[in-house]
Write a structure and sequence with these properties.
This protein is an alpha+beta fold. The chain is built from 21 helices and 10 strands. The protein has helices at 5-10, 13-39, 67-78, 97-105, 118-124, 137-150, 152-156, 159-176, 187-203, 213-228, 235-238, 248-276, 287-298, 303-317, 319-334, 336-349, 365-377, 410-414, 438-441, 465-482, 518-525; strands at residues 81-86, 89-94, 387-388, 393-395, 398-400, 405-408, 483-487, 498-499, 505-506, 511-515. The strands form 4 sheets. Strands 1-2-6-3 form a 4-stranded mixed β-sheet. α8 (159-176) runs antiparallel to α9, α9 (187-203) runs antiparallel to α14 and α13 runs antiparallel to α14 (303-317). The longest helix has 29 residues, at 248-276. The protein is globular, with a radius of gyration of 27 Å. Bound molecules: protoporphyrin IX containing FE. Protoporphyrin IX containing FE (HEM) binds next to α6, α14, α15 and α20. Keywords: Heme, Iron, Membrane, Metal-binding, Monooxygenase, Oxidoreductase, Transmembrane, Transmembrane helix.
């Protein structure tokens, strides 16, 4: 070896470099050949030659905080059905009501599964929660059980409890604002209202004050869940090799799973201990009691299934409704003419002696319209939990292969100028004459007649629809009956920005409250804020 080295040194320099250059070129070509498929979309066709829907040339792994705006930009460029690749996963984006109806509703047997997202499904939910399950028997069992407690009929049984929580909410705002003297943030009271309703349904319990540690812990867990489970945000979901490395997202997801187990597992164990001690009569009727008393065993459920149903209720039903209520307050403070028209309707239909109730809704089309408009203009989920296909399908000449993720592009649909003229303006009048409840509207055959798509579509449509509508109606009408809402000088409320990765809640803001009439104070003061079930 050492004898041949000098010979190399005497070679002309250009010749000596040839093997090196060739090697480098070959390595570069190999790298490019390896990298290009990772960067650009593949060309896929059906056996009959149909191409996949058009879409961006490059693959993605992250769309940023306002991911709906990127999806909207592409919808304008590529049309109502386009495809985009995230790492190894093809997404198709549905940006028109007819496409949503044709695929998710009419072909629900094919488009109702869920992708096995690594962070959300595997690490956090252990493949068990209703929202994450593929379209299989476990999902059917969970969904059936959830509907037992969330159906229209079941919700009728919670009306008194929800009405009582409304007064607690009104009182909490009153106390927090030092009897309307100080500006205050409505966020925590709104979260407590929705959490108490969910705890009532699942555990027959509630938090007792804004300082209750349970409120703060669940609030934190739900926010963390929303923050780390956006369907278009985690590279680790789309590039499986990243799972071999320790990442911050993975660590956060594992911690969240442990905390959920600790919190909800602890509550379930405490209930089980009470039942074992023969003290079941002390526990109000609720989903967890029913499951622990036998329903779970009959359905072949394991303890983790029970836990995950409770988690699904909290994670699905707390920030969604609390977000709507916060947006509603923000719009009332910034649109006093709308609030004044709602107050006039209340005075005419309900008067000032009592709070509005469920029966009043049909007689108050304007407040009904305000609620629909808030949900249209600020849906809590601009990118709702995606659906997933279980068979190859050709739609309008475009190929949607099995195992494709389908995104309902709520932002683009809710800003379609032909359906909602002047769509960026908050204008409840657009819904006057639409007397249907949103749950009834979602069943209309004509997708263009549907009020909005905030609750999703097809067989995975939100099972909390009925309770959400009750909670929102009673809270919104009660808030309007009690207060007028005002912006705080020099602290404008932003109606454009929001927290979280998908529209969830407004940025923190403060409002100044004013009581509308003395009877409102009497109603609140007669109510015990520590009211227990
Ligand atoms: C304003 C309130 C709410 C909104 C806007 C909302 C919205 C949604 C949306 C968009 C979906 C996905 C639907 C789809 O895949 O097409 C969903 C699913 C779900 N929601 Fe809601 N939701 C709300 C309240 C609730 C409540 C109160 C609960 C529970 C008590 C709940 C529990 C769930 C569950 C468990 C799923 C998963 C269903 C499945 O995969 O089969 N949601 N929700």
């Amino acid at each position: 070896m050492s004898a041949s080295a000098p010979e190399l040194v005497v070679l002309p320099s250009s010749l000596a470099l040839i093997p090196t250059r060739l090697g480098l070129t070959l390595v570069s070509l190999a790298l490019v050949a390896f990298l290009i498929p990772l960067l650009i979309r593949p060309r896929i066709r059906s056996s009959a030659g149909h191409p996949t829907p058009p879409g961006p040339f490059f693959r993605r792994w992250y769309l940023g905080q306002y991911n709906e705006l990127v999806l909207d930009k592409w919808a304008r460029r590529f049309g109502p059905l386009y495809s985009v690749w995230f790492g190894d996963q093809m997404f198709v984006v549905l940006s028109h009501p007819k496409v949503v109806q044709d695929l998710l509703v009419e072909n629900g047997a094919i488009f109702s599964s869920r992708k096995n997202y690594y962070v959300k499904n595997e690490v956090i939910l252990h493949d068990r929660a209703i929202t994450a399950n593929p379209y299989d028997q476990r999902w059917r069992d969970h969904r059936k059980m959830a509907m037992k407690y969330l159906s229209e009929k079941a919700v009728g049984g919670y009306s008194d409890a929800i009405e009582s929580e409304v007064v607690t909410l009104l009182r909490s705002l009153y106390d927090e604002s030092k009897h309307c003297a100080d500006p205050m943030s409505p966020a925590l009271s709104a979260v407590r209202y929705t959490l108490n309703n969910m705890l009532r349904v699942s555990f027959g319990t509630r938090t007792t004050s804004l300082d209750d540690p349970l409120l703060h812990r669940i609030q934190r867990l739900v926010m963390e869940f929303d923050d780390i489970t956006s369907p278009t945000s985690n590279a680790i979901d789309f590039f499986p090799f990243l799972r071999l490395f320790p990442t911050k997202t993975h660590q956060r997801a594992a911690t969240l799973n442990a905390e959920m187990n600790d919190q909800y597992g602890g509550m379930i164990a405490a209930m089980q201990a009470k039942l074992d001690a023969g003290l079941g009569a002390e526990i109000p009727d609720c989903a967890m009691k029913h499951l622990l008393e036998g329903a779970a065993q009959e359905g072949g459920w394991e303890s983790e299934d029970v836990l995950m149903l409770a988690v699904a209720f909290a994670f699905g039903g707390v920030h969604s409704i609390a977000g709507i209520l916060q947006w509603f307050i923000a719009f009332m403070a910034t649109h006093p003419a709308v609030a004044a028209a709602a107050h006039a309707e209340l005075d005419q239909v309900v008067g000032r002696d009592r709070l509005p109730n469920n029966e009043d809704e049909k007689d108050m089309p304007y407040i009904h319209a305000i609620i629909k408009e808030v949900q249209r203009i600020h849906s809590p989920f601009w990118v709702p939990t995606p659906h997933y296909s279980t068979q190859d399908f050709v739609y309008e000449g475009m190929f949607i292969p099995k195992d494709t993720v389908l995104l309902l592009n709520c932002w683009t649909i809710h800003h379609d100028e032909t359906r909602y003229p002047d769509s960026y303006t908050f204008n409840p009048d657009r819904y006057l004459g639409d007397t249907l409840a949103s749950s009834a509207s979602s069943k209309l055959r004509d997708p263009m007649a549907r009020d909005h798509w905030a609750f999703g579509a097809g067989r995975r449509i939100c099972p909390g629809f009925a309770i959400a509508e009750r909670e929102i109606w009673l809270a919104v009408s009660g808030l309007l009956w009690t207060y007028t809402f005002h912006q705080v000088p020099n602290e404008p409320i932003s109606l454009a920005e929001y927290e979280g990765s998908s529209g969830r809640t407004p940025l923190p803001f403060k409002i100044q409250l004013k009581l509308r009439h003395p009877r409102a104070r009497e109603v609140m003061e007669a109510h015990d804020p520590a009211h227990t079930i």
